[in-house]
Specification:
The protein has 251 residues and is an alpha/beta fold. The protein contains 9 helices and 5 strands; from the N terminus they run E-H-H-E-E-H-E-H-E-H-H-H-H-H. Strand 2 and strand 3 form a beta hairpin. The radius of gyration is 18 Å and the shape is globular.
Amino acid sequence: MQPTVIVWDLETVPDLAGFAAAHDLVGKSDVEVREAIGDKFPKHIYHSIVCIGALVAHREPDHWAVDAVGSPHVGERTEKQLIAALCDKIAELSPQLVTFNGNSFDLPVLRYRAMIHGISAPGLTVRLYFNRYTEDAVDLCDILSSFAPHTKASLNELSKIMGMPGKPEGIEGTDVEPYFLDGKIQEIADYCETDVVNTYRIWLRYELFRGRLRESEHQASERNLAEFIKVRANTKPHLNRCVQDGSASST
C-alpha cells in the first residue's frame, strides 16, 4: 500500500443539548443554555461537529498526489454519519494524520463525539493517533513550536509568512457559531476546506525542511495540488485563492 496522509480539520459549535443534560438545564431554552455556557471557550466535550474537512493524498515516487478534498457537513448528513465516515476512511487507509492543533482540539473532540454517538471506530486505534509524540498523527502547531505554548504561531500567520495567501477574508473561527445560526453551513464547510489545503501546504514545506522531500519533489507536489484545484475550479472556487501565490505552480 502506498503511504497515505489525511489532512483534516473540524469546525464546531457549542452542544447546547449536551451542556443542558450535564448541568440540569434540560427544558431551558437554547438562549438560556447558551447564556449558561458563557463567553469562555467551551470544554471539548461540549462541542458539536458541524463539518469535517479532509484532504487525502498518497505518495508517488517523485511527489505527493492529492486524491480528494472535501468538507461534508451537517446540512448533508448527521454528525454521527460524518464521524463514522471519517473513521471508516482512516480504517481503510491506515494513514498518517496531519492537523493543525489537532492534538489539543480536533482529536479529543472527535473521540468524545464518537463515544457520545456510540460509534465503533477501531480505525482510530490501528496506529498511535492519540500519542502526541509519534509520526502517526502529526500536529504541525505542536511540532513547529517544539511543543511550547509561548512559541506557537497560528495557521494564518504561518501561511502568510511562508508566502501563501492564508485564510480567506471575512470569516474566521469565531464566526462559525453565528454563521451556523444563520444557516450558512456551506460557507463554514468552504472555510474548513481552505484550512485543510493551507495545512497540507505547510506540511509539504515541513517535509521539505526535514529532508523527506527534495526541492523538485516539493515543487511537483505543489503543482499537483494546483492542478487538482484547477480541475475543480467550477465546483470549489473558494480553493482557487489557496494556490494563487505562484509557489504552487513554480518550476
